[in-house]
Amino acid sequence: MLTISKGFATVVFGDSFKITNIAILENKEKGELFVSMPRYRSNERDEKNSVIYKDVCNPITAEFREELYTNILEAYAKIREPEKAETQTQGKTQEMPEFSVTVTPYEREGSNIKGLARIYFENSFIVNNVNILQGKEKIFVSMPSYKTKQVDEHGKPIYQDVCYPVTKDFREKLYNEIIAEYEKAKDKSNEKARENAEQNHGNPDRDKKDTPFR
């Protein structure tokens, strides 16, 4: 399908969390507009050996998908008409959005990635590819990002977050929740590994008690 890029949209949840790089595309054959969520290149390939791209974030219910995409396309239509562009107003300040997180511990030799997280907003929208990274002194949260064409003073490429908390209060609340869930998941994973080891090799302390000789 041939497409033409017509613009990019930004969505904000509760004045607290921003989603950028939402593409508005046009199907060149049908002349219809549609919304494409930000994507990332995965390590997977399809049956034709082509690279598979996955959404960084996306609606997870049909109702919210329709509502979100309709609002984006309506906003785009308004700014395309000069006489309507000035009628756009900023909504009232909203409370922090409700959210939940899931975390999977991740351990690989030579990698500073310690966990992968997902954020669910009000059971309607999901953000994938949130990393828990090991810093010099402690772990920290890294939001999904993309490589820009800019470089820093050392010549290294600059990365820009695709989605991120807007306010300090929500950032602290979100990141603290992610790290807390990571610690819980890590403890649970370690406990399961210990139980499996005991089943396969026995419990040294227990076996020692059952031994008649010291």
Automatic annotation (TrEMBL):
PANTHER family: SEPTATION PROTEIN SPOVG-RELATED (PTHR38429:SF1). InterPro entries: SpoVG (IPR007170), SpoVG_sf (IPR036751). It comes from the Bacteria. This is Septation protein spoVG. Keywords: Cell cycle, Cell division, Septation. Residues 185-214 are annotated as: Disordered. GO terms for biological process: division septum assembly; sporulation resulting in formation of a cellular spore. It comes from Roseburia intestinalis.
